[in-house]
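User: Structure please.
Assistant: Input sequence and predicted structure:
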Amino acid sequence: MTTSDNGAAQLRSRQQMILLFILFLGPVVAALLFYFVIPQWQPEHKTNYGVLINPARPLPALHLLTEEGEQAQPQALYGRWSYLYLGGERCDDACARKLYQIRQIRILLNEKQPRVQRVYVAPTVQAAQAAHQRLAAEHPDLHYLVDADGALRDFLKAEDPQALYLTDPLGNWLMVYPGASDSPGILKDIKKLLRMSQIG
């Protein structure tokens, strides 16, 4: 092999290495560039249906009561994925429809149902007892808590009376679902979360 042939072979080898570098590392460099340098080019597409709380917010120290008026266990909102519904002085027809919606969503989780709980949060012990009396037959697995000092309601900035609030098993507020949210979207979100996370 002549010197010129040897030089040509080295050039081809170098070109192939550069091409491989571009093919394998080019997309990574481009992604970093778009993410950090020109974030306005990032797609606005989102994969979650609910309104994401970003970053997730840990629940504060709460003084929740049971429907009997006793201090609730500190872990009442920990250990499972929790859908919180903030009830009023009475559970009207709109309240009953929302609880039915989230009950059906939980049923559709099949064997993963135990990982998710529904919690009715009342403003007073009397309101919790009245809600339990009305709802017990159709919602035997519904949990009742009393937010007597309104600290949980203030933390969640609750304005929509039919909204649902999702917290994770570690006690972080992750999402809020406005009252008009559709069941398929809520179900898709929780299925994805249960699939991606092993906690709870």
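The first helix runs from residue 3 to 37.
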